[in-house]
Amino acid sequence: MSLTLKFLLMLLLVLSHNVDSGSIVKFLPGFGGPLPFQLETGYIGIGEQEEMQLFYYFIKSEKNPKEDPLLIWLTGGPGCSALVGLLFENGPLALKFEVYNGSVPSLVSTTYSWTKMANIIFLDQPVGAGFSYSRTPLNKTSDTNEVQNIHEFLQKWLSKHPQFISNPFYVVGDSYSGMIVPALVQEISEGNYICCKPPINLQGYVLGNPITHAEFEKNFRIPFAHGMSLISDELYESMTRICKGKYVNVDARNTKCLKLVEEYDKCTKKINEEHILVPQCDKINTQETSPDCEYYIYHLIECWANDESVREALHVNKGTKGKWLRCNWTIPYDNNIISSVPYHMNNSLHGYQSLIYSGDHDFTMPFQATQAWIKSLNYPIVHDWRPWMIKDQIGGYTRTYSNKMTFATIKGGGHTAQYLPKETSIVFQRWISGQPL
């Protein structure tokens, strides 16, 4: 082989290794000085022609990135950006809550980042969420399609970052990710048995306030409402007796039950479903949201992500995205996994460990519903219900099962970790390091 041919082959290898390998971000608008952690952003092409370009933020562990676990974070929706998780829930930066004055909103360091002991890939998925985009018109996607797309993303990302192949790997998310994460764990597990691709070192998964079966969870809102004194004893007893535990898609012939559901709706319709103690205010029309509203922060994140200097710093491809939205509800999507419980069962049979946590003031995915489907797996209790502590204060309650599943409540928490990120981080950090909560 001639020297010229050898040189060309070596050049091709170098180029193929560096293509789409991501860009290092050292500074971000709104944050003073260099970033105190290692951030990489980039795209991974998915599909036969790589027409789907999935955008990711990768943050190395601040402890020992060579050996610490590797996580992929999937925000719910479907269609909400992973930037929500990064800046609101468990990342090393957060948006400062201040009135927008036209300049780039400020970023501050957090004390509760999960990156203190884990490497995390924050992924914008499905295509259309965050900064992910398609080179061709968007086709309708689905739960099962997304499971395959994310699996393909992971295989390609790891092939471009081979130094992380041996790290213990976990799939993590919350809310609607409860439909995707268990199925993705199963997909990765099955894929690890297929020839010729390096196996992903899958160890388990983490879910916060996860949806598992929409109708199932909605039915549990009634006992939750009663337990939180949102409805009277008399109304609850009547609903239990007449509706017989079925409060969603009620048979039209059961007029008595329908009447009782109406009474229930009158009592609860102005309650903030994501956290019953937080005042209800507009979290959709962010430009009209008052700074007095807890969700004014959603306006700030849109101002930040839509600033041209931010997009340039993040290495977002120009012209690929119009207005960045916290959650893109217009993505054509088929919710074709009706229940994720069978996936949980299968993952348990294969020995994967899991942490399921619930903010106990979440009305959308009541903790009673989560406890009920966990109990339906029929695994013996190893450590029974007990409080977990932060110093000498109760942070919530926990129970562990023989299938390596840990359930924990976050006392005073809501639908996502953004309501109590410090407390949620303590639960995660104890669990991922193998300590009792």
Automatic annotation (TrEMBL):
Checking InterPro entries in the record gives: AB_hydrolase_fold (IPR029058), Peptidase_S10 (IPR001563)
Coiled-coil portions: none
Which GO BP annotation is one of this protein's? secondary metabolic process
Keywords carried by this UniProt record: Disulfide bond, Glycoprotein, Signal
Q: Which GO terms describe its molecular function?
A: sinapoyltransferase activity
Which residues are the signal sequence here?
A: 1-21
Q: Which family does it belong to?
A: Belongs to the peptidase S10 family.
Protein name (Swiss-Prot/TrEMBL):
Serine carboxypeptidase-like 9
User: Which source organism does the UniProt entry give?
Assistant: Cardamine amara subsp. amara
